[in-house]
Amino acid sequence: MDSRRQNALACGLPKTPAEWRQKAAREVIQAPPPSDQYDRRQPVDAPSLHVGEKAIDVPLVNLSGWNPGSKIQFSHFLTTRTLVEMANDPRDIKAPENYTDFHLTQEICREANRWLIGYGDWNVYLRDIKDTEDRIPEPGESRELGEFGNVRYRQLLAQLLPNDEQDSAPAERESNRVPYFSRIIPAGDEGIVDIGLVNFVVALTKSCQHVGLDWRCARGLVHIQVGHAHLTAQNDGRLHPREHNDTYALLKVKPFRLADKPDSTLMEIAIQLLCWMIREDFREDHPYFTISGHREHTYLTVATFGQGYPKYISEGVVDNQEDCFLKLKSYGPFNMYSSKHVKFFGQLVLSLAIVCSEAWKAKQASSSVGAQPTIST
Fold first, then answer.
1. Which pTM does this prediction carry?
2. 157: domain range?
3. Is residue 155 part of a domain?
């Protein structure tokens, strides 16, 4: 990795149960401004809004008036009982306890590394990053990088984006819809970051025989209803099996660096992961993680939950205060203009794609066994 060690972001979200209790006991529930309500079909009745009550006293399942994505109110977010930890160094992911969060094993990581060593385009791409770092080549002077040519081009363009700390303009919605997800076309600055990240993960995994899943490049919109709570999350891509709606990883992109808007961005990622978990009924046969792109930086954010957390979400019941939290840990930034960072990040992404592919195969095998007809004699 780089000799420079990245400092932790100045994140104002709770990191420990004690911090959560302190903030939730202080924060008061407020009604969302009407102009900010994303889904106007959502009933916003006074009893379920709990206006003026402390967040610590209101379970998520009893609370309405949720704003979508990056506009979520902090008081509402606290009712998700989410703890957020930012790793000081991307290399912290190598610790055994962190490998467990991602369902990673040393053997899978070695398998991914062996495959990448023999991937010619990958090695040429890493060499170009090492030689030129963030320099944008003049027209006609770009190196031939095979599958990673457009990846590198899009990544270099990210540094030219205006640093105004604002999201891009709303994307144009397409008319065709599938269950849980609607297709949306990327627009503006965010589209540049989006295409670069999606092209990277596709080029990295599509030729690997150990990966049996595809990256979906369209944005998806998810609506989840839990009691009075109507949660809305948007992702910018996902890892999924062909012709199935299962999800095994999520993508999120922003046209600004995470350090510019850490709290709102991490709250948005948390809701994105929570909606996914609820849809999956908190299955534990695969990791829940988001790969997020922020200009030239990328992050891996993994979510785990305590044993009592699913019951809290569905019923609002807290049996054990210390074991009833959603825990997010975010690793990064991985600098996409550093060959050392990119090499390590690529190994992680491919390893995770293999882990998720094996989880999908195991699910299919289990379904096949359960679907076998009974033969009478």
1. 0.87
2. 121-162
3. yes
